[in-house]
DNA sequence: CACTCCCGCCAATTA
DNA sequence: TAATTGGCGGGAGTG
């Protein structure tokens, strides 16, 4: 019977008949494959496209479960219909169905004919876009596979993407329920909202959207979610998905698909380049990014894009950048989604759940698979771009703002991703694996002191703030591997005008004074990283060590408080519930500061995170240091005195940990007055404007303080140190390997004795790499002694010359461009490949990823 | 050669 | 334990 059906079909769309790959099914003998001798040769498999082959397939498919037989029959009919419909869609493809293709073609179906997009079209043709609500259409994978003449694997690809958009839902093994597009708008709306939360914030700063050719321009809408919104997103229930849902499955293709769609929805231009999307996705998913990962992501994106294209949601385009033409996809689906939500919900039960799922999906997704890492961070929309951008631009060479913009946009995206991750992690941690978050008390190796109040209360409403669960933030403890710290090149550079410091290497963070008058008392819990998946590693690391480091370096008292950890955990957990709600000021950020400083205008949202240290570098001293920072029981008070230059943004740089997957956070120190205050208080959340940067970008940079700062960190009385201490980011860690500087912005006062301060403007120390951009006036000091306590203002971590082996590239001074660029932007994948030195971790890896152009500052 | 992305191995999950 | 799912990446097809 089947055969007959098949045969009928065949005639209709001979061409289209895909080559069926029955081979898998059973031993189909290579019977006659007239057509593709080659393959045949290779494999004994029969050629699919022949009717017989098809029959075989069908039979084989059917046999397994006769159960669906009837259904199949039904299905088949539709299929026939579908075929006809198929072709039309093909429009999207340049390819054009060459339906005209000769029969030869038929025989040897070209790749295009076997494309996933085409297959998807056929698949879709089988089902009505808007099925009657009354009738539920079930989809049998076996059937479909056999009917379409493909392996099931391919069907999974399609179904997974469709499922991410809720066009179908899995009801049982081998069974999917077709919902059609009724809920599509709702789903998209949800995704858009979610996307805005995640990515949209970033958008704020793209004022320049115009420039962006293809970047994401995001909407700045005020839509920024409030903490409240979160609940919506809440992934709280992974459940939503069908029973099986939680599995890793939620992890990849489905999630990736949703995120990919979100990018489009959030993008002003509605155009997303593949590489950017891939990077974003990678960031989310992976700690370590390497070229192969990138390639894999791209492959997956093609898969997804093909399906979305078939759905008529996107189409392929090319964006032309300076670098050249890049493949991209443009959203051609609906853009505005008025709230139809009602409808959505109304739909089938499965569908009902959908909305939730959709919202949560993203988060869930992440959460699902990865508990291994824990990161906590929350951040709001960032507005950093400008600052960042500027910096970048500051570079002498890069005149192209456009690019920078792009970078910014990319970064934004990345940041969003990071945020998402963090959230997820947080969630997870709270939910599932708290441990991951916090080291077990016993374990605590981390120097981190959980600040009881890790949380920062938000001070200023104006600034978009994030609230982090305190615990989370506080926890930073994880064993950091000293090695890691070493690995880094400590390059510290100060950038004139820019108040922030960057620690190139992994674990550093910077605080910059410069807060405005407001005294910010910050407790930066940021450090908390925990051992991620590498808990083990962390565990391994003897706490003592950490402490040592801390103590040793950190003059600051901060000691890893193991004890605290428990508390921290608790907090964390609690907080987790809290969520990382993002508080976003609805207003666009216009912090006065920003205004004041044109360049830096972007107010940044603060992102706090807790990273876990890289496992790899088990002992990340830095981490410790970070924690230590937090640790500092004291709250850090950073007073910003520089009223004068209120606006220069100051950032705290948090070293990216693996968990973060290479993101660096910069917290702006100087916010609008009072904007940031981190108090040791229990405030669960902290709102700080910050900028998040892809670590990669940072990696290459040795940023440092901006001299511009006139007023150093608030001189906290003894706190100065304390301040410093507060800042102290676990200096210990820093100290361990890399020399850190803390200095006021203007100058580095190297407390560190060894090296006298360097003149800012000089590029400097050989040791340091100053990015060209930075070059302006940067002062870098090398300190042998890791820490400089005295000045609260800036910490610099200098590279140690030899400390870690750097790859040549890593060594290179990064361009300013590099700074912002995402790895992908950089271009050569090749660079990525380098990652061999995993140990170097993020920083190194990042650097590798990124191509840093090597203009060495020398 | 770069871009696409098919194909199918094989691990993770489920039943 | 077998079957279902689906991550993943080699490497082929296409331009």
From TrEMBL:
Q: Report biased composition (Polar residues) as residue ranges.
A: 81-90, 837-858
Tell me the superkingdom of the source: Eukaryota
Which terms under GO biological process does the entry name? Answer: negative regulation of DNA-templated transcription; positive regulation of macromolecule metabolic process; positive regulation of nucleobase-containing compound metabolic process; sprouting angiogenesis
**Region described as Disordered: spans on this chain:** 1-49, 63-91, 222-248, 379-405, 550-577, 822-858
* GO molecular function, a single term: RNA polymerase II cis-regulatory region sequence-specific DNA binding
Q: Spans of biased composition, class Basic and acidic residues?
A: 65-77, 222-232
The record's section on InterPro entries has: E2F (IPR015633), E2F_WHTH_DNA-bd_dom (IPR003316), WH-like_DNA-bd_sf (IPR036388), WH_DNA-bd_sf (IPR036390)
> Where does the record place the E2F/DP family winged-helix DNA-binding domain?
111-180, 248-333
Q: Which UniProt keywords apply?
A: Activator, Cell cycle, DNA-binding, Nucleus, Repressor, Transcription, Transcription regulation
A Pfam family of the record is WHD_E2F_TDP
**What Gene Ontology terms describe where this protein resides (cellular component)?**
RNA polymerase II transcription regulator complex
Major location category of this protein? nucleus
Which cellular compartments is it found in? Nucleus
Similarity-based family: Belongs to the E2F/DP family.
Q: What is this protein called?
A: Transcription factor E2F7
Gene that encodes the chain: E2f7
